[in-house]
Each structure stands twice: as structure tokens, then as C-alpha cells.
């Protein structure tokens, strides 16, 4: 069967699902400020931007664990839980003070929504901070559904939150393109069976993008609409 015949037999793309941190939003500065506020309370040294960038991607519990490990060690379970709670209270109070949309994000989301596509966000960030961040940066209204790192029992790279998002969007995996920035996005989207996985060329990936089983790397976010029909 030819590639043309294959493309004719594929379901039409009805939805695009996005990762958040490192894909839509550069949020690492706010995560660093919240981490350093916690560390100051603990009498520990601060962490810098490159370090926090390397800690991002697995949700708040892992971020805090890595911050603590890098600055003196992880405390006993009860104290570690208190540190996580304190970090979340600091971060969720103002998660957007230093965060910015990547170039082309707002205009591209607007164009995609106006074209009739259903848009959703699947992030490992807690829902409280996610909702506030999307609203503060003016893009919340583009999304039909959003799931966070505390929406389901598992986080990416598990496919559970991706499948949960698609259920809320009312679409099937074969009708969906997933756009992310790292290895967890690829693993979760592939396991969920989405039609295509596209990656942005920036973000917080900890492994080379060329080694991941994706379907393409965008030149920039504004390149996305032209790649959805490929």
C-alpha cells in the first residue's frame, strides 16, 4: 500500500495535546525562585537556573527531591513531605511572575482553535499551579481540557494522563497529535497510541531529541499548523 493510500485511510486529526513546561511556557525561573525560597528557609544554599532546568519534567515531588539532594541531602520522609508542601505553597502563590510563553505560542494556539481543532494540556505540574499559570499568561481559553500531575494516580511517562485528557476532549488517540519537548512526552504519547508525536527544538529534554521515536522536530512553535497535515 502506498503512502498516499495510507494517508487517505488515516482518521483526520481532530485534536492537539500539549505538554506545558518547556513546550508552551518557559517556567524554569519561577521554579528556581520557589526552590530558593524554600532552601533559604531551610538554611541551605541556592540552586541556579541550569540545575533547576535539569530537575524539571517529573512533577513537583521529584523536583523538590532533586533540589534537596543537590543542597545537602534528602531528609526523612515526614520532613521531605513538609518541604514539598511548603514548596507548593510558595510556587502556587505566584507561578507566573518570571514565566513567559515561548515565541509564537499565543498566535499559533489562536489559529489552531479557530480552525476547529480541540486543544488540551497534559502536564506533570500540579493542577493548581497549571490553571493559574495558563490564566495568568492569557492562554487558558484556548484549551478544552487540561490535566495535571495530580489529576490521575500516575504521571507521564505513563500513558494514563494522556488517555485521560483525550477522554475529556472526546477524541481518540488516532485523531490526536501530541506536542512536547522531552523523553517523557514521547513515551507517554507513544504508549497512548496517538497518531503523531512532534517535538519543539527548545525545552527541558535531558536526552538528545534525535534519539527519541518522534515524528518530527518543529523549527519553532509557529511551524506547528503546517506540520499537522503532513
TrEMBL record:
Active-site residues, record numbering mapped to chain: 19
Catalytic reaction annotation: 2-phosphoglycolate + H2O = glycolate + phosphate
Source organism of the structure: Azospirillum endophyticum
Family membership noted in the UniProt record: Belongs to the HAD-like hydrolase superfamily. CbbY/CbbZ/Gph/YieH family.
Required cofactor names: Mg(2+)
Biological pathway: Organic acid metabolism; glycolate biosynthesis; glycolate from 2-phosphoglycolate: step 1/1
EC category name: hydrolase
Function: Specifically catalyzes the dephosphorylation of 2-phosphoglycolate. Is involved in the dissimilation of the intracellular 2-phosphoglycolate formed during the DNA repair of 3'-phosphoglycolate ends, a major class of DNA lesions induced by oxidative stress.
InterPro entries reported for this sequence: HAD-like_hydrolase_sf, HAD-like_sf, HAD-SF_hydro_IA, HAD_2, HAD_sf, PGP-like_dom2, PGPase_prok
Signal peptide (UniProt feature, chain positions): none
Protein name: Phosphoglycolate phosphatase
GO molecular function: phosphoglycolate phosphatase activity
